[in-house]
Amino acid sequence: MAAGGGLCGSRAGSAGLWDWNQTWYTDTPRFTWCFENTVIPWIPCAYLWICFPFYYMYLRHKNKGYIRMSHIFKTKMVFGFILVIQCFSNVFLMLWKISQGIPWAPAVYITPAVLGVTMMLAMFLTQAERMVGTQSSGILLIYWLLTFLSAVLMLSSKIQHALEKGFLEDYANHIMTYLYVSLVLGELVLFCLVDHPPFFSKAVNSSNQCPEANSSFLSKITYWWFSGLVWKGHRQSLGVDDLWSVREENSSEETVAQIEKEWKNYRSRTKQKMESMTFKRGEKSKTGLAEAEETQVLLQSEQSQSGPLLKALWSMFGTYFLLGTLSLVICDVFLFSIPKLLSLFLEFIEDQEAPNWHGYFYAFAMFLLACLQTLFEQRYMYMCVVLGLRLKTAVTGLVYRKILVMSNASRKTATVGEIVNLVSVDVQKIMDLIIYFNGTWLAPIRIIICFVFLWQLLGPSALTSVAVFLFLLPLNFVITKKRSQFQEAQMKYKDERAKLTNAILSDIKVIKIYGWENIFMEKVLNIRKQELQTLKRSQILLSASLASFHSSTFLIAFVMFAVYTLVDNTHILDAQKAFVSLTLINILNTAHSFLPFSINAVIQAKVSLNRLAAFLNLEELNPESSSRNTSDCVQASITIRNGTFSWSKETSPCLRRIDLTVHQGSLLAVVGQVGAGKSSLLSALLGEMENTDGCMTMKGTVAYVPQQAWIQNASVEDNILFGKEMDETWFNTVIDACALQADLESFPAGRKSEIGEKGINISGGQKQRVNLARAVYQKASIYLLDDPLSAVDAHVRQHIFEHVLGPNGLLKDKQTRVLVTHTINILPQVDNIVVLVDGTISEVGSYQELLQRNGAFAEFLHSHITAEDKPCYQSHGYTGQNGNVKHLERKSALMSPTAVGDTKGTVISGNDPSWEKLSSDRSVKSSAMEREIIAVSQDCTTAAAAKGRLTKEEKAQRGRVNISIYVAYLRATGSLLCLYIILLFTCQQTVSFFRGYWLSMWTDDPAYNGTQQHTELRVGVFGALGVIQALSRFISTAAVLLGGVLASHKLFLQLLRSVARSPMIFFEQTPIGNLLNRFSKEMDAIDSVIPDKLKSLLGFLFNLLEIYLVIIVATPMAAVAIVPLTVLYAVFQHFYVITSCQLRRLEAASRSPIYSHISETFQGSSVIRAYKDQERFILKSNFRVDENQRICFPGAVADRWLATNLEFLGNGIVLFAALFAAIGRTHLSPGIAGFSISYALQITGVLNWMVRSWTEIENNIVSVERVREYLRTPKEGLWTLNGKPQDQVWLTEGRIEFRNYSLRYRPDLELALKHVNLTINGQEKIGITGRTGAGKSTLAVGLLRLVEAAEGEILIDGLNIAQVGLHDLRTKITVIPQDPVLFSGSLRTNLDPLNQYTDADIWTALELTQLKNFIADLPEQLEYKCTEQGENLSTGQKQLVCLARALLRKAKILVLDEATSAVDLETDLQIQSTLKTQFKDSTVLTIAHRVNTIMDCDRILVLENGWIVEFDTPEKLIAQKGAFYRLVEESGLV
Description:
single chain
């Protein structure tokens, strides 16, 4: 007071700084003159000066380019200048008056001086903001708001003064005050507006910039800048183009570069630390001190797995996270202020003498604090979400880049399904941690503060709440820990299921051909059953946890109130104590529940971090394994000196003592038997293997053609260009040389035609030729070719060798070629031959040299000439003049294995319209992707590109979700169960209402002689009602969650059956990523998210109805405010749901391309590395991740927009409830008022969460819609007729009859087979030949009913196959496809999935296919585990396993589709002999390009353009000199 007196002087009414009687205890409150003229105007000044140093430093580091002087800026400066002049005018005026002897207090000139200097500072900051491009300032807006409020208080005082003493007494002062307030108001309005964008900003040039950058501070904190998109989403369907571009700081390019740098940095530090510790341990072991530190070192090595990743993430995102945490702490300050205000408000209700304005003040104060709490809480959530998206981008980028450098050993430990889980499920767990982590330390602080406040209210009785809390806490910890174990088990089952599902979808063709759908479905369902059992237990525990959480409010209140009232009769439980305690207990309860959730989130994130770190720490390829030398001084293109190579550091070498020199421009052939190490040699050259000894160098760039062709889901042109610029002349030259011209002409969009995933819609030959064309187009120095000729027919093989590989081909000049081959007839034309035997080089030399040495190579060639062959060849005039060598060449021409192209009728060549039959009008790629990453020729018309598309784009549904989807989900749950759930929730909420009402009556009980009556009755009934409510909540929650499990099981079964029963065309048009998305992410939402949100929605809905009832019962007038506010709620909810659902659908559709790209890259990583094209694929991945983030960001902001607006409306309801209670306090008891307002305080959260839960349901019910989408797709015929297998007597002879049979792949396409009429007798051996695209494999397609007949019929043993179940048909026909397919699992499972045969039968089949010795040498023999796609076996070995599988079945009809294309000639001869003897009683159809394979068949069928051209014995067809004769002639056999 003394300081105030010195500053304010001794004027009447101004001697004191503060006077309670003048300010608080009066009906007409006003501040003292001293307070008005010092503290109030100084508050905004103090605020700005405190903020100034920090804000100025921030501005110095955030330069976005200056803003040109706008009208807004100029007006701000003019107003500021006038205000400064006015302030200093006041200073000079007052100083003049004092000098004239007029007594004035120092405050009259100090305050305007402080104001003037502060306003100059504000003008300086305004200019500084303009220079660094700040368009809207929060700091200065708050300053002008505070200044305006202080000016308004000053103005109100002036007006009061004028009313009392007259305006004319000091009218000049009044006018100056009004001018000052007006100018400050003008500044406030101007600072609410947003200035022009910075002049040199990059963001200004963005075509679709996020409006947040150009929005005002108020718009930013309330998220109103998002309203434009909400309105647009309401008026029209949103597309990706309607959304904003990703900001530069959030883009993959920026984010992943930073995280990669941090990750490498921390990872190398950790490695150095571990090496240092290991060294020290080694030193100490010499002195016997190691054992004591052994455990410590092991523990640290375990932590080091995820430690570097966590440190890298913290280093990058830590500062931003801490800023968000600061917002949450400020939010908590406001959170705890509200119960204090409620306590004061209830005191006001009870004290009838208190001035009325106190009630209004408390009501508005509660409203203001609640609004500030909302703003800070939503800012925290927004920062967490933005941080989560950046983290998702960073981790996805790290995982993708890891895929490109994984070693072969690492690839065996990780599958596509597991990697997809890493970037979807595990990244989500870490994103959740960002939101929940602060709960681990903030929740205990909240709990402690609540206990302190409760002690103040109830004294020692509050300690009982500690006891209850300590009882509940371990219970929740136990439940959380147990749930965590269940979730880990569930994740394990999810991974297993994802792995198996991926294998099934990848090789669905083979599964359908063999009729194995049921077996694999059963395997999936067994895993699913275990997964759901785990989920069910987890959900019951969750129900118990939630029931204990919701009951804890009651339990703590019950124990505290009971102890407080029963221990001492003089303790009165009044409204203030009861309802403020309940409000505090609600906060306590939220913190109490948040703690286990936070801990659970930390545990789950730790598991996910460990999984991610384990993957990122997997062994990588050694970049020094292969040295690429570009110097011209190196004469040889390839040099290996004493090289020893293995697939990993742990395994034994598969290539030993390799010495090889390949000179520039030479053509080297590599030959050897299956498993000799031919493909391994190429892998070693590519640096894909561990170089354990010796050295290797390669000079120049490399192009690689793998044995199993790798095709991208892109156009033919894009597959060939592979990121290179288009050179029309060279492109056409390459197309001609690789024999692709005829194929391109038959494609609907030519070179723009799209190839499906893994080349599913083109033949094996076409895949290999596209691969070869890709390699040739690159103009590389070295070509590594892994048996590219095996998949093409004789004349195409000859064409490719002559025009591409051979001495006169495109690669003849300086290109070095290393060719792995089984084709012997080209060997005389190569420069050198390397013969591999068991991983070592047996011989090296030219063809003539090796023959003359008469060593292993000569024996290998001579072994193919048998006495019985010679007469046959001679009779057809096949012998040559050069004796043995010439004969060997011809023999090799006859025996060279080639592959049929048109497997399953998907051939695309010649005049066959097969491409069209598989094409589709939709493409999975966006046009934006093509513009940015894939070079697209300008002359390609949109129509042509659309015509060539095959795969269907992931469709995003439009508008709101149809009511039928909800009905479908509820039906899957069960109608009776739904009714039961509604009744349970109604009972529970009714009990809750009566419990609250009973408490209000208890608090209103009058006190007689200092005690309340009937306390025991009040306590007993209160307790009984609480127990009943707790039981009701547990049962109702468990019913909803278990109903969700039931619905999930039914929907998964529907999806699995629907997909399994889809025809092959469906899988060719639908990318695997889309299907995997349905089985993983969408099913995950149905499993966990929908039941959880449904439970929340029902809980909040019934809670809301209870709150409305309470408020209206207490203050009926509140209905006047509640109705319009509820209408506003409905409006916000309506707008939000429409936009949010569309964004959710777009986001779901944008995930699939990421997963597809990951899958594609994983399969083709060796090819990508060979071409050194990692950068382009990384850019492609960045684009797809950014497109996904572009959709995720608006979805996240939509949640904040909704929450902020709804909480403001909820705060409005609290305001009106309090105002009406204050107005009607004369007839309102404190108990009822407390009951009403304490419930009203919950309404903000309840309404917000109710709308959020409803929206989450609508967002996630899209998963049900997407899962059910495939129920409507066309299906195959019945697997078995009448639900039982066909009578076993059928198919005893194997007679096949085609009657006027025609087949087309889709109704709008031409016929692929045209009016075929032929009869094949039982046990007859038929060869089927014709040029590529003739329709050979389409016959097999028709025979297996993979596509149904357009007209006509096929009869087998007199029975129309259309009247036979598909499984009955397919299990009796064995097909050996061109591409060998093995599944992840044991060899035994692969050979006998149905478990029908004994081990003896299996060993016999293996012996017949030359595999017995190989498998007998394996450690686990038949139980040897095959990796995904059988990658731990060579292609030849896989084909032999498939042959053994066929031998076991011994079907009456066998279809061979170039089954031995990847085995050496000797093995091929033995297999052909085995097939003849083992299937002598079967009808055998051999589909072949090369004629020599079918020369010994009984009859030969020649097809052309789907028509039968010839059908007779080989001798007669050759004699006729027709189409077959021409094919024989082209093959060099006549």
